[in-house]
Design a protein that fits this description.
The structure is a single chain. The chain is α/β, with parallel strands linked by helices. It has 2 domains: 2-124 and 315-321, NAD(P)-binding Rossmann-like Domain (Rossmann fold, 3-Layer(aba) Sandwich); 126-301 and 332-349, Dihydrodipicolinate Reductase, domain 2 (2-Layer Sandwich), CATH 3.30.360. Helices cover 35% and strands 24% of the residues. It has helices at 11-21, 37-46, 57-61, 75-87, 102-115, 129-139, 169-172, 176-192, 300-317, 325-344, and strands spanning 2-7, 27-33, 50-54, 68-71, 91-94, 119-121, 146-154, 197-205, 237-244, 248-254, 263-270, 274-278, 283-286, 291-294, 348-349. The strands form 2 sheets. A 9-stranded mixed sheet has the order 14-13-12-11-7-10-9-8-15. It has a 6-stranded parallel sheet with strand order 3-2-1-4-5-6, with helices on both faces. Bound molecules: nicotinamide-adenine-dinucleotide. The site of nicotinamide-adenine-dinucleotide has 24 residues, from helix 1 and helix 4.
């Protein structure tokens, strides 16, 4: 039996982790913590497995019964809460992105190493059946040489909580690239089995809602944090090109664009076979003659169940899993280099 605390009782807690953790018999959720007490209380009402509501996470960190904490706060707080939790001797499952930049992410890894605790990151796509299949196909050489990967994560209207946490760089670390791109970069590097970065070029744009009041709103998540008197200083469009010792990667992402359509996919182009992964959906594999379509074996909520189970098991076994920070740091570095290139308006040569 593991005794845990949930820190941050917002959307990802409610939609992903609590439904997953509620299915696991060998977990006690001793605390649900949020600086906004009503949010923690409402979550407890809906998920009675939460035994106590607190507003100061230090209460959970000081409790010797707590084995592990889930850090589900806005991005900038991942660093402080995770470092405090590790120092207190707790294992941590921290949501993606690791935090707002690579330097702080590395410090988090170093603290996990120093304290001998597991630190996993919520890279849920590594636990998605379709991504796993692509990983296995590549490992078995089915693609031949993957020479290029193209990803597109573009929506017509999806700037989340305009003027709130997600669009304020000091809180989020960035926009579409850090929020959505992090998933794509991470799953690409996972399927490749890692890659050495050579050059990174990127441009980011904050165009669609530079005048927030005139942005033609359709729908968005994080609507509760929308604040047109707040800040929007992050990328709503990103385009990038990466050379590695394996495949080159092109990236196009938009939280919003003046095109009445959106798309979310990753193309893996190999000299024997190619595959299109519909993001969090089916895979189409083509060898020039035959088209095979594979539907995922499980749906989106289940990837969080797998993620939670893998983390809990790793605490018992002491074996680091695919979601461990050691395996996720390279996509955090790539994310950082893309932003560095965009800020400097020039290509970054890594080696
Ligand atoms: N894996 C995924 O696909 C996925 C999806 C959505 C969000 N996320 C990540 O999850 C994190 C949270 O996102 P969200 O959409 O749930 O945001 P949210 O704003 O809905 O929830 C965050 C909660 O944390 C609370 N909080 C802030 N500081 C705190 C502190 N010091 N102690 C306790 N509580 C604190 C806030 O009051 C809020 O209720 C983000 O890092 C986001 O990137 C991941």
């Amino acid at each position: 039996m593991k005794v845990i605390a949930i820190i941050g009782c917002g959307r990802i807690a409610r939609n992903a982790h609590l439904p997953a953790l509620s299915q696991l018999d060998d977990v006690r959720i001793k605390y649900g913590c949020d600086i906004i007490e009503e949010k923690a209380k409402k979550l407890q009402e809906d998920f009675p497995k939460i035994e106590n509501v607190i507003t100061d996470y230090n209460v959970a960190l000081a409790d010797p019964e707590i084995d592990a904490v889930w850090v589900l706060t806005p991005n900038f707080a991942h660093y402080t809460v995770t470092m405090d939790a590790l120092r207190a001797g707790k294992h941590v499952l921290c949501e993606k992105p690791i935090t707002v930049n690579y330097a702080l992410s590395k410090e988090m890894k170093q603290m996990a190493d120093k304290m001998g605790k597991m630190l996993n990151i919520g890279v849920c796509n590594r636990h998605h059946a379709s991504v796993e299949k692509l990983y296995e196909m590549n490992k078995n050489g089915e693609f031949g040489n993957i020479y290029h990967i193209y990803c597109s994560f573009r929506s017509c209207r999806s700037i989340p909580g305009l003027g709130g946490d997600f669009t304020t760089k000091a809180v989020s670390g960035g926009g579409a690239l850090i929020d959505w791109g992090v998933h794509f970069l991470d799953l690409i590097l996972y399927v490749l089995g890692g890659a050495k970065l050579k050059t990174v070029t990127c441009d980011t744009y904050c165009e669609m809602a530079k005048d927030m009041a005139s942005y033609k709103y359709k729908g968005m998540w994080a609507e509760d944090t929308k604040n047109l008197n707040g800040t929007n200083d992050v990328d709503d469009f990103v385009t990038g090109y990466v050379r590695t010792d394996k495949a080159s990667i092109s990236i196009n992402g938009a939280w919003a664009q003046n095109l009445d359509k959106g798309e979310m996919f990753v193309d893996f182009l190999g000299d024997k076979k190619g595959a299109r992964l519909a993001y969090q959906g089916k895979i189409e594999v083509f060898d020039g003659e035959t088209l095979e379509t594979t539907a995922p074996e499980y749906d989106i909520p289940n990837q969080y169940l797998e993620e939670n189970k893998a983390f809990l098991e790793s605490i018992d076994t002491g074996v680091k899993t695919r979601g461990n920070i050691d395996n996720v740091l390279e996509s955090a570095l790539l994310l950082d280099l893309l932003y560095q290139s965009a800020d400097a308006h020039k290509e970054i040569v890594v080696e």
